[in-house]
Design a protein that fits this description.
Organism: Minwuia thermotolerans
InterPro entries: Ribosomal_uL4, Ribosomal_uL4-like, Ribosomal_uL4_dom_sf
Number of strands: 6
Radius of gyration: 27 Å
Function: Forms part of the polypeptide exit tunnel.
Shape: elongated
CATH superfamily of the largest domain: Ribosomal protein L4/L1
Oligomer: single chain
Helix content: 25-40%
GO molecular function, one term: structural constituent of ribosome
Strand content: 5-15%
Strand order of the largest sheet: 2-1-3-6-4-5
Protein name: Large ribosomal subunit protein uL4
Number of domains: 2
Number of helices: 7
């Protein structure tokens, strides 16, 4: 399919051929959902922790004799039913990551790109580069393009001035082509790709 290419001044810069097998699929929400869950679970720290009954600093002696007190029998002050005792079935340090087949991860990337194309939220720009790292100037260019929430993906090495200028603009992210991922694509309203990014993504996903 043919797609229009513009520059940062919102002027026409020709056209580009997009691969139908990458940008022309019918988006599947179930695959995207699985991939987002996979990414979010993988980045969780998993450092939550509470003390069990074998870890709390309390005496191990029997609280009172077994019979004759009229009270319920107790074996330890460390039991979860006592104030200051251990927590029953509490969280422990662990990894939340789970497996997802590589084919499904690749397919999710295809559907994420296709979903932006289907929603008319995909913008192709000629280049994403600036002569100087000025946030004010870049913010004005993005406003002219109608971008308030966007992921901008460049080639293997994004322009340093562009990256620095975009750093202080809320809801604007810049990634190299190898860093493009499903979660970051879906969390922003628009996806902006440079010509170099399109070539790199098609080479990566074919």
């Amino acid at each position: 399919m043919q797609a229009k290419v513009i520059n940062l001044e919102n002027g026409e810069a020709g056209e580009i051929e997009l691969d139908d097998g990458i940008f022309g699929l019918e988006p599947r929400a179930d695959i995207l959902h699985r991939m987002v869950n996979y990414q979010l679970a993988k980045r969780r720290a998993g450092t939550h922790k509470v003390k069990g009954r074998h870890e709390v600093a309390r005496t191990g002696a029997k609280p009172f004799k077994q019979k004759g007190t009229g009270r319920a029998r107790q074996g330890s002050w460390k039991a979860p039913n006592h104030r200051g005792g251990g927590v029953a079935h509490g969280p422990v340090v662990r990894s939340h990551a789970h497996d997802l087949p590589k084919k499904v991860r690749r397919l999710a990337m295809l559907h994420a790109l296709s979903s932006k194309r289907a929603d008319d939220k995909l913008i192709i720009v000629d280049t994403a580069s600036l002569d100087e790292a000025k946030t004010k100037g870049l913010a004005a260019k993005l406003k002219g393009l109608g971008l308030s929430s966007a992921l901008i993906v460049d080639g293997m090495e994004p322009n340093e001035n562009f990256v620095r200028a975009a750093r202080n603009i809320p809801m604007i992210d810049v990634l190299p082509s190898q860093g493009a991922n499903v979660y970051d694509i879906l969390r922003r309203e628009h996806l902006v790709l440079t010509r170099a990014a399109v070539e790199a993504l098609e080479a990566r996903l074919k």
